[in-house]
Structures are given as C-alpha cells and as structure tokens.
Amino acid sequence: MESFQILWKRAWAPETGFRLRAAERPALGAAVKELLWVRTGPALAGLCLGWLAFAGAYGRITRAEGPLWDLVWSRLPDQMNPADLKAALQGLPALPEWWKVLPGCVLLAPVLVVSLWLHDAVWDHLCLWLLRGLGRPRSFRTTLVAEAEALKVGVIGALAGLFKHLGLAFTVLLWPVGIWFWILRGFALAAWHGCPAWKGVVATLLHALFMGLLVFGLLAAVIVMALQELRLG
C-alpha cells in the first residue's frame, strides 16, 4: 500500500508520477483492492454527511422553519390557509434515525466506489479512443488499471470535498480542486496507454462535455414533455 505522501506527490506532479507508477506495472486486482481500501472511508463519510444534511433540510421543511418559509408565508395566496399547509407538512413521515441508516451506508460506500471507477473507465476509454490515444493493444483492462490508480490519488480531492457540507462558500472554493482531480485521470490514461498527456486530459474534458450534454438533453426532454402535458390539459 502506497503512503499518503506518495499519493500527494503524484497529485502535484501527475505526468511524471503516473509514468513512474505505470512502469511498475501494477496488477489490476491489486490496484482495485488498494482503491477500495483508500476510497471507501471517504465515500462512507460523504454518505453520512449527505444524509445528515438531507435530514436537516427535511426537518426544516416539515417544521416549516427557515428563511425560505418566511418568504413563502409572505407570498402565500389569500385563499390558502397557512395552518392547513403546516399541518400537511407536519404529517409527512419521519425519517429513520441516523444509526439505522448507517449499516446501509457502510454497504453502499464500496458499491459507489466501484461504480465511479467503472463509469469513469468506460467514458474515458471511449473518449481516448475518439482521440486515437489508446495504446497497442487497445486494452480496456489497461484503462481500468489507470483509472484505479488515478482514483486512488483522487482520495485527496475526495477528502477535501467533504468540506462542501460546511456551506456554499466551501463548495465554491473547492471547484478548482474538483476540476484538477477530474483532469488528473488524463495523466494516468496517458501514462498507461503511452500517448501524449494532452490527449489524456482532453479525453477527460470530453467525458465532462458528454455528461453535460446528456444531462442537459434529459432535462430538456422532461421540460418539453411537461409543456406538452400542460397544453393537452
């Protein structure tokens, strides 16, 4: 198992660091085991913090408390009774206690890590293929190893990302960190496939572009269908 110091150095000198690591020819099985060992803890912490944030927001909704509700009460139509709305919100089912959710989070954390790894591998491999950056042979197994090694280094960004739960200001400040650790995978792809670093980096940016277009397309389709239903209604 590589030390945190080694991962830190590789994060800030990725082109050299990943090429040296690729020369060691780590096995796929070992790379995945190390990935799970390193990333499951931060994934579990993110799930727990996310649940606590959701539970807090849900509680404010059911209690009809907070600045947002002050605005709602001031804009409420005359024909709507605030007491009826409050009663309806208070009748919403209560969320389970955090200690009941924790076992599910423990089981879900490694699944999320593996899902992230496979998702990134499939899309990055496709984008690198479009750029003609895949090595010979054009092995998907090679991409799997590269992605596992990159996500292992990305634990630094995952740990930093936990601070986003402290507020919007932290989320904005962490955007550059998130962008850096996103394109960091490109240096790993280039190292394992033997292509120029710029092709690996552009492959990750294409991945982001395709994901953005996909999300935008789905949202646009939902909006169009909703408008059609309103017209038909």
Any overview of this molecule?
The chain is mainly alpha-helical. The chain has a domain at 4-39 and 108-232. The chain is built from eleven helices and no strands. The protein has helices spanning 4-12, 14-23, 28-63, 67-75, 82-90, 98-130, 140-153, 155-161, 168-173, 175-193, 197-232. The N and C termini lie far apart (61 Å). The model has no long low-confidence stretch (mean pLDDT 91).
Feature tags:
233 residues, mainly alpha, 81% helix, 0% strand, elongated
Structure summary:
It contains eleven helices and no strands. The protein has helices at 4-12, 14-23, 28-63, 67-75, 82-90, 98-130, 140-153, 155-161, 168-173, 175-193, 197-232. It starts with a helix and ends with a helix.
Class derived from helix and strand content: mainly alpha
Q: Give the uncertain stretches in residue-range form.
A: none
Number of strands: 0
Count of alpha and pi helical runs: 11
Helix fraction bin: over 70%
Query: Mean pLDDT, rounded to whole units?
Result: 91
Q: Which descriptor suits the 3D outline?
A: elongated
* Helix and strand pattern: HHHHHHHHHHH
**Distance between the terminal alpha carbons, to the nearest Å?**
61 Å
Largest sheet: none
Strand content: under 5%
Radius of gyration: 23 Å
